[in-house]
Amino acid sequence: MANVLILGKDLPESTDFIKSFELNAHKIFTPVKTGSIVNMDNDNIITCNWNKASAISTKAMLIQAESRLENLDKIIIYFDACHFAENFQNDRVDELTAAMENMIYGYQYLIGELLTRFRQKAPDCQILFLLQTVPSKATLSKNPGAVPCNLSVAAAQKAFEALAENAAYSFYDLNSVTPIIAVCDPSNSLYRQDHGLGEWALTFTDTVSQMKNRPTLKQCTSWIKAGSKSLGLSIFK
């Protein structure tokens, strides 16, 4: 049984994704969407509140995760652009603050706080950055018939892509941490299939943990497709 911290998509929206981890008896720590009431009749699922707009809340959430899980075996940081596109459909100025807080600031605070804490005492764990993309207006030629996301979501998913790539290098320097960066785009059979995506994330991280030697820097900083069975070369280059 592994202790898993799942962040980026909150309960109840993340229910299908975390189900695979739950069914395999892993202990899960994950946030609940503000204003939602979630009744989880399962001792292996620990919930918390996380205000993504607050660096203080981010730090408190991670302290609570470390306390309740005792050790962190896996960290899943999930950016679901499809989910964000449904929540932020307009480019109105009055929506930009909430959009940036949820899609950019929260992830920046999270990575910054994790690096600060792990540089003091890094656990032996894996960090999976998982990006599920949504077509932007600039990529419609590759996705004919798709409905493009708005400007803030398009910008945010590019920001997460850059954040994950660069954070992977920083985490790899810690020696005991193994970062993985993965993408699921509209051509992927797992696209918008949260349960299947969760099953893959669990199986793949288990496979990496069983590797005799730690993956190379190139393997850990190159994007792989969700559904892949091994670490490979970047698909974005």
List the helices and strands and how they pair.
Blueprint: E1 3-7, H1 15-23, E2 27-31, E3 45-48, H2 55-69, E4 74-80, H3 81-87, H4 93-120, E5 125-132, H5 151-172, E6 177-184, H6 194-209, H7 217-220, E7 224-225
Shape summary: globular
**Strand order of the main beta sheet, please?**
3-2-1-4-5-6-7
- Which regions are unreliable across 5 or more consecutive residues at pLDDT < 50? 233-237
Written as H for each helix and E for each strand, in order along the chain, the element string is: EHEEHEHHEHEHHE
Beta-strand portion reads 15-25%
**Count of separate DSSP helical elements:** 7
Note the gap between the termini. Answer: 36 Å
Average residue pLDDT = 90
Structural class: alpha/beta
The largest sheet, given as strand count, sense and whether it forms a barrel, is: 7 strands, parallel
Strand tally, please? Answer: 7
Q: How big is the Rg?
A: 17 Å
Helix fraction, binned, reads: 40-55%
Note down, in words, how this protein is organized:
α1 packs across α6 (194-209) and α2 (55-69) packs across α4. This protein has a seven-stranded parallel sheet, sandwiched between helices. The longest helix is centred in the middle third of the chain and has 28 residues, at 93-120. α1 links the parallel β1 and β2. With 237 residues, the protein is an alpha/beta fold. The protein is built from seven helices and seven strands; from the N terminus they run βαββαβααβαβααβ. It has helices at residues 15-23, 55-69, 81-87, 93-120, 151-172, 194-209, 217-220; strands at residues 3-7, 27-31, 45-48, 74-80, 125-132, 177-184, 224-225.
